[in-house]
Amino acid sequence: MKFPVVNRRDFLRTSAAAVGAALASPSLGLAPEALASSYPAENADYEIDSCCQFCQVRCTTRVKVKNGRVVDVYGNPDNYWTGGAMCPKGKAMVELTYSPHRIVHPLIREGNSWKEISYEKALSVVAEKILELKKNYPMEYAHRLAMFEPCFDSRESEIAAKLALNMAGFPDLCSPGDVCIGNTSTTAKLCLGNGNSPTSLNEITDAEILIIFGANIAEVKPPYMRWLDLARRKGVKIVYLDPRRTPTANFCDTHLMPRPGTDGALVLGILRILIEEERYDKAYVDLNVNGFEELADATMPYTPGKVEEITWIPAEAVVDLARMIGKSRRTIAWMGGSISRYTNAMQTVRMIIALQAVMGNLTGPGKGIMWVRGGKPGGEDELLEMYQPPDLAARLSSRKVIFNIKRGNIDVLLLNSSYRRYPNSDELKKAISKINFVVYRGFFMDEEAELSHLIIPGTMVFESEGSQYGLQRQVVWRNRAIPRPGETVEDWRFYTDLGRLLNKDRFPSIDGPEDIYEMVRKASESWKGLPLERIQKSPTGVTWPSYSPEEPDTMASLYRDGRFQTPDGKVQLSIPGIGRINWTEPAGSPNTKEGQGFPLIFIQGKVGHHWQQTLTNWSSYIAQFSEGNVVQVHPDTIMDLGAKDGEWIYLETEVGRIRVKLKITQAILPGVVWTPSHPAPTSPYSGNFGQAINTIIPDYWDKVAAQFNGIGCRLIKA
């Protein structure tokens, strides 16, 4: 099956409504008055500098308070990266803070009901349950406890949790990166020596070409759209690779629609042409790249015709794109999170890094590689090693922790985030329901609360302070705007209090997140130039690495001297742990044995007004933009189904089925089915209500992270 190349002119002509909506966004550099808050400044008692907790754009904000209540929040207009923009998710936090559904006191389960208890009592119950593990399993307690990260309110909370549990001998804290961006960051660390996104956003305005691999910036990172607009105005050619015509395509010169999960094959085909026609930077490769011979051999089968067969992109378009890249000496590759969510993800990321490497486009002005998640600035491992016991067991991966849960080997589970982020989540839910003691650090009576024995409610964004790290390697600080309601408690405080009970006098003295921040800063060479007072003064945040407070803020490439953080300073393309360079079908795709009988390709994704499967589902403001479980399909895809637009049908995979509303659109590749990721069955608002999509996602994993896209599916009349 093939789909034509869509250029920008064609797309603008057929998508006028979407263009109008996108151009109305304050993220596109409108006048300052267009960014103003809706609440009159003179009516507020005071304003506080803050930042959004959701994604790693880390929009810094201004919070208005009147009579002790937050009445408005708006983007800080002095933020260099956002220009004062923010998305609906951040605005919804005002409503969520004062939601009538919010839990503000600890609750312990008694039979089929809940009893309110004090925070002190709840804390002691958790400590007792954890210490019982050490008593009951003196030789094998380490993996009897697990925690699902992240801690919601700050990086200091993550550190406090790891300190408390690692010091007590429990290493298994499951990072959300294991199901999000883990494949990308792990591959980057293997190839380049560092798992953080190395190029800052401002570099795209100096590029000749920007290639966007499946990153729907307009919805996933809307404040960054102003940078695409700036780049385009400076003449940067923007190439967008995505099986859907998303609002991001409005700002791109060329839109190619590859079959989901085939980006790696496309890049191998491009590399074959570049190498065969000697359009690559041979001198750079000789000095800076290990494994070029293996790469060249791996590209040989990927002729333009073969690439067309795999990707559904016409061969001539593959050749045109390769030669365009071959002429450019300043190209930036921007990878979306979707790239990381296939079982072939590590190979794909390695190929994209290889493409930039052979063209000499990994470092330098207008060059680089980015993805939609930043990274931690370091110091964490060094700090933890100072306090953790020498015999601490090795941390298990999320996949192994889930295996332990299903085998009944976990006795205590600390839920700081949703179990629904994992594939085949109904099966995981059944396993969690058999765990002896589950603690939920949440906000509402959602699916996680229903599985728990104890709920200790957390604080929301305006009620706590702390630092956050962002996609541009910036560190920002959020100030508290209002007091904590009821007996809610910040994550850093809960895990510090728990650490004292578990570890007694061995636990470090911590009175606030500022103490934890300084502990980490002093342990990190690359963060020593970021004292707290420096980041507190910045409306943007300060970029690391920064080795001295006197050093000016730096952006551009993480690899400033053009050398990478691998042992020999070179790009590593030969990596035995990943295997030889190769492209394979995503597990469970229609072209695999497991996918037989499921002829359509399933993909899912975030939308601009929702945050995964949790918090935003409790907002009525957000619900007005949502329709619950829906699927987008091309009219050719459902030609034989006999279903009409807006009709309810079933979406089915090898794991199960859910009821969905049909949305017929030309804006998706034929043969592909897309659905949003966020609906939840406990939401009180019809727009957000729906079946969690991961209940029907098979349990397939790459070496590091889970797969959520590219599987086979089918649509059935209800």
Fold and architecture overview:
The protein has four domains: 6-97, N-terminal domain of TfIIb (Single Sheet), CATH 2.20.25.90; 107-174 and 377-543, Rossmann fold, CATH 3.40.50.740; 182-372 and 567-572, Dimethylsulfoxide Reductase, domain 2 (3-Layer(aba) Sandwich); 600-717, Barwin-like endoglucanases (Beta Barrel), CATH 2.40.40. Helices cover 29% and strands 16% of the residues. The chain has 23 helices and 27 strands. It is α/β, with parallel strands linked by helices and 718 residues long. β7, α6 and β8 form a beta-alpha-beta unit. It has a seven-stranded mixed beta sheet. Strands 1-11-10-9-13-14 form a six-stranded mixed beta sheet, sandwiched between helices. The longest helix is centred in the N-terminal third of the chain and has 18 residues, at 119-136.
N- and C-termini, Cα separation: 27 Å
Count of all domains: 4
C-alpha geometry: globular
Mean pLDDT score, rounded? 91
| CATH fold-type name of the largest domain | Rossmann fold
The tally of strands reads 27
User: What is the CATH class of the largest domain?
Assistant: Alpha Beta
Summarize the amount of helix as a percent range: 25-40%
Biggest sheet overview = 7 strands, mixed
